[in-house]
Amino acid sequence: MEGGGTADPCRRETESRRGIKSYVLRAGRMSVSQRRSYEKLAPVYCISLNSAGGKGPLDYAGIFGNDRPVTVEIGFGMGAATALIARNNPEKNYLGIEVHRPGIGKLLWEIERRGLENIRIIEHDAAEVLEKMIPPNSISAFHIFFPDPWPKKRHHKRRLIQRPFTDLLADRLSPGGYIYMVTDWAEYGDWALREFSAAAELVNPSGGFASPREWRPETKFERKGLDKQHQVRELYFEKPA
Questions:
Q1: Which uninterrupted H or E stretch holds 188?
Q2: Rounded to an integer, what distance in angstroms lies between the CA atom of residue 103 and that of residue 78?
Q3: pLDDT confidence tier of residue 17, bands split at 50, 70 and 90
Q4: Nearest to 63 by CA among 77, 52, 73, 79
Q5: CB-side neighbour CA atoms (13 Å) of 117
Q6: What is the rounded distance in angstroms from the CA atom of residue 40 to the CA atom of residue 73?
Q7: CA triplet 219, 158, 10: central angle to 5 degrees?
Q8: Phi, psi of 36 (to 5 degrees)
Q9: Residue 35: which residues within 8 A CB-CB, separation 6 or more?
Q10: Distance (Å, rounded) from C-alpha 144 to C-alpha 146?
């Protein structure tokens, strides 16, 4: 291993299930504006998996030009909530991880339209990003809003929120930081509550499901779920300081 350090158990366990992806890479069509934004802005705001040269973790200060706390959002979809949260919190940096290029193009369009300087994007699998690019105890918060619930039982193995990935999240989270997940699939919420509760480094200040955070904007996807009478579950876990 590079540098002669001890092996990372979170990385080793997560690598063992890397063949099972929590997403399907769909060939979604990009709009003209999304494609234009991607081609123009990806070189500026997107970070490649090899940005650390394959020799170490990301240099947050070098990427953002400051040492402000970093929030990671996993699977930001079309990026509407990401852009609003970043706009409303200029004192924080945001690192979005997404694999679907139309959504990346849309968030890049939002970044340019709103003049946002506190967002960067990684177009890659979240598990591998956390393993290879994110050092332990370095992220102030993780946002995971409406991940794919994979509702069929035979697909549950594809769910993002399950151990050992929850242990990896906890390991990368800074002491005093939080993990905030929202789902409109009630059964997945129950599942995620059990999985997060099993992570030794995390505590649940609510004792169960959390109340909505007023700073989280409602998304178009969320409204569609509510129109279908879906029950929104909010989970909020902390890593003690």
A1: helix 186-197
A2: 4
A3: very low
A4: 52
A5: 6
A6: 23
A7: 100
A8: -65, -45
A9: 105
A10: 7
Q: Cα–Cα–Cα angle for 32, 114, 77, nearest 5°?
A: 60
Confidence of residue 3 (pLDDT cuts 50, 70, 90): very low
Distance of CA 209 to the CA centre of its chain: 19
* pLDDT for 128: 93
DSSP bridge pairs for 179? 142, 237
Q: How confident is the model at residue 10 (pLDDT cuts 50, 70, 90)?
A: very low
Tokens of 193: 């509550």
What pLDDT was estimated at residue 225? 83
Backbone dihedral angles phi then psi of residue 232, each to the nearest 5 degrees? -80, 130
* Phi, psi for 108 (deg, rounded to 5): -60, -40
In this structure, the strands spanning 233-238 and 173-183 are antiparallel
Helix (H) or strand (E) holding 36: helix 32-45
Average pLDDT over residues 148-173: 94
Domain extents for the chain?
Answer: 37-48+66-238
Options 3.40.50.150, 3.20.20.70, 3.20.20.140, 3.90.1150.10; CATH for 37-48+66-238 is: 3.40.50.150
Alpha helices (runs of H) in 46-185, residue ranges in sequence order: 60-64, 80-88, 101-114, 126-133, 165-172
Active-site annotation holds for 148: yes
The Cα 56–Cα 54 span in angstroms is 6
Distance between CA 178 and CA 143 in Å, rounded? 9
8, 125, 148, 184: the active-site residue? 148
For the segment 191-232, what is each residue's pLDDT rounded down to a tens digit?
999 999 999 999 999 999 999 999 999 888 788 888 888 899
